[in-house]
Amino acid sequence: MNDAINNKEARSRFPVATQISAGGVAFRQIGTKIEIAVILVNPSQRWQLPKGIVDEGESIEAAAIREVREEAGILATLVAPLETIEYWYIGNSGGIKTKFHKFVHFFLLRYVEGDVSRHDHEVAEARWVSIDEAIEMLAFKNEVTLVKKAAQLINEVTQ
Length: 159
Fold this sequence. Notes:
alpha+beta, 7 strands, 48% strand, disordered N terminus
């Protein structure tokens, strides 16, 4: 069989591009209560973790902190890397329908200051919720799994 036929890119009806993003599970502790920041995105109206594309020349860590600041309205500091989620989706690149191979690097971030009401225009709402609430709200199964993993690490760093 021809090698090109086995190649996913060769079989794709669309050009293929790689996209690198970063984001975070930002948490705060109030007494014994732990909350994480989640966002409701436009236009899909689904709850997810803050994340976005890494700018050229920007480190993935800096991008994660920036995206949480922009999308959730808060400043947070890096605690630890969590996981890299990988998936495919169809989108537009320069007006051309493109198949993207996306890698999202997630980090655990500790809240420093800010207000979730100060999110950017891409976000319909940002809010603090308990870990259990986040697990119920989040639209993507891989983000639910990520929050469960983050919960274990949060427990370790807040003891």
